[in-house]
Amino acid sequence: MIAQNLFWILWTGLIGLVVGSEKRPNIVFILADDYGFHDIGYHGSEFRTPNLDKLADEGVKLENYYVQPICSPTRSQLMTGRYQIHTGLQHSIIWPSQPYGLPLQYPTLANLLRDGGYTTHALGKWHLGLYKKEYTPLHRGFDTFYGYWEGGEDYYTYYNCDTFHNRTIEEEEIPSQKEGPWCGFDLRDMETPVTNMNGTYSTHLYTGKAVDIVKNASNSEKPFFLYLAYQAVHTPMEVPQKYMDPYSHIKNEYRRIYAGMVSAMDEGVGNVTKALKDSGIWNDTIVIFSTDNGGQVFGGGNNWPLRGNKRTLWEGGVRGIGFVSSPRLKQKGAVSKKLMHVSDWFPTVADMAGVKVKEDLGLDGFSQWSMLRSGKSSPRKEILHNIDIWEPLQGKMLYNDTFDTRVRAAIRVGDYKLITGNPGDGKWYPVPTTVDGLTPPLPAEISESAKNVWLFNVVKDPYESIDLSGIMPSQVRSMLDRLKAYNATAVPPMYPQSDPKCDPKLHGGFWGPWE
Ligand SMILES: *[C@@H]1O[C@H](CO)[C@@H](O)[C@H](O)[C@H]1NC(C)=O
Ligand SMILES: *[C@@H]1O[C@H](CO)[C@@H](O)[C@H](O)[C@H]1NC(C)=O
Ligand SMILES: *[C@@H]1O[C@H](CO)[C@@H](O)[C@H](O)[C@H]1NC(C)=O
Ligand SMILES: *[C@@H]1O[C@H](CO)[C@@H](O)[C@H](O)[C@H]1NC(C)=O
Ligand SMILES: *[C@@H]1O[C@H](CO)[C@@H](O)[C@H](O)[C@H]1NC(C)=O
Ligand SMILES: *[C@@H]1O[C@H](CO)[C@@H](O)[C@H](O)[C@H]1NC(C)=O
Ligand SMILES: *[C@@H]1O[C@H](CO)[C@@H](O)[C@H](O)[C@H]1NC(C)=O
């Protein structure tokens, strides 16, 4: 604790303000949950997303943009600018009954902005730890919070059961209904349990709170940071009927409900945008929109034409929807093919806000502000997608003097992507309607369970259909050496057993700190 405090004092001493001529912008970061790559109007979806499309059309669409394949890791990288090999969150998500969270020594984006003079608000999903109150949003740089601390729940009742309880790492790969003995509510206003919202759909609840914050903040001199982390469009499959009505032609029930969930979220984004405009602060605001990971195919999502699903290291798991919209951008209506990663938001938003990170904090992210604002080149040449030493090993080791190819990992260097170990389900899921006449190429190796090395040129072949590992051994070798070098910098992953003290019955029926 002493070491952490020392680090903290040093860190807070390291920032300083850049005083520019422009008013510092408000920053609204909207994070969707499990939103599939295909499922936005401008990617050719059959869903109608007019508000998202309009915002993106007026801004910069990110078409070479990467996130993590699951929730907590993406949120950890967004909040700290660090790969999860450097925070210990390499393996899976934080389940409600597990006693851990995003380590406290790393300042969050909210800490940075608050120290730089912003008011900071978080709405919706947190999912970066709840077992001690120090891990929850008001202790991680946010002035206000309204939402839930764990990873998922019912959209109307705000009730959830832990599904992790003593599952083994092997069992984790199997979609499971195995519930732990612990169930409870999870909705808080600041830190106080909320009990009077039963029946209100969460997309409406968080949108309404966001609109209130925008209206209120427009009277303030201070700029604000609003982190709007929607529950939508994660499972469970729930939406008010009226949002599904336009999609009665969709036969698959999950897909139909999910379409409605997307429409409700799109309406919410429209409401927040309208509030910004009506309040006269649109010119001084930057809106960022991102998914947290690829779509969950079994929950109605679709990542077409990309291969794979949420949880996998295929492009369908990690390549995300993302855009930035603001009158402050010099390039409007641009489509950027420049490489960007979710860990880049921390330094990028710092630059947007004129909050300078003076010393090297050891970030893995790069500032992309000049790329976004003016179309300059991306400073990023590589992405470490992940190294997960706790995933069961697959196949045989290819070389004995570099990275062990049995280990689940993936890395992007330039146009190439190398995958090792067991990357997860690599199927293409049928597209609901045709997209530009594309048909998925079918891979030969899909059933080879011992295979553990793949190399793709994902710029020429975003479908990951042509494995180049056999014909480019020296490229494979040099990328394995990069993985080895990253692995040498990794901290051990954290993934503790459930703690029975988490039981919400012991805490007034709510999920919350038990230590
Ligand atoms: C869960 O696992 C822990 C550690 O293996 C064990 O001590 C505990 O008894 C288990 N709990 C239940 C309910 O099985
Ligand atoms: C929430 O509302 C549902 C449906 O009206 C009801 O079944 C449930 O008991 C309510 N839950 C609470 C905690 O009031
Ligand atoms: C958006 O605003 C309209 C008008 O106030 C409201 O009827 C609708 O429910 C809002 N939508 C969401 C998702 O909050
Ligand atoms: C509006 O701002 C004031 C002053 O900053 C604060 O006290 C109040 O709680 C805010 N209201 C809402 C709805 O956010
Ligand atoms: C926003 O900027 C535009 C273009 O510079 C200007 O025409 C408009 O009046 C500004 N709106 C407000 C509310 O300041
Ligand atoms: C590593 O592989 C090389 C060639 O494949 C072999 O000659 C060597 O004995 C191996 N070293 C170890 C430590 O297994
Ligand atoms: C990664 O680093 C850890 C810790 O140094 C080491 O035990 C492990 O063998 C390395 N794994 C690979 C695949 O290089």
Automatic annotation (TrEMBL):
Keywords per UniProt: Calcium, Glycoprotein, Hydrolase, Metal-binding, Signal
PROSITE patterns xrefs: SULFATASE_1
GO molecular function, one term: metal ion binding
Signal peptide region: 1-20
Cofactor section: Ca(2+)
Pfam families on file: Sulfatase
Family: Belongs to the sulfatase family.
PANTHER family noted in UniProt: ARYLSULFATASE, ARYLSULFATASE B
Name assigned to this protein: Sulfatase N-terminal domain-containing protein
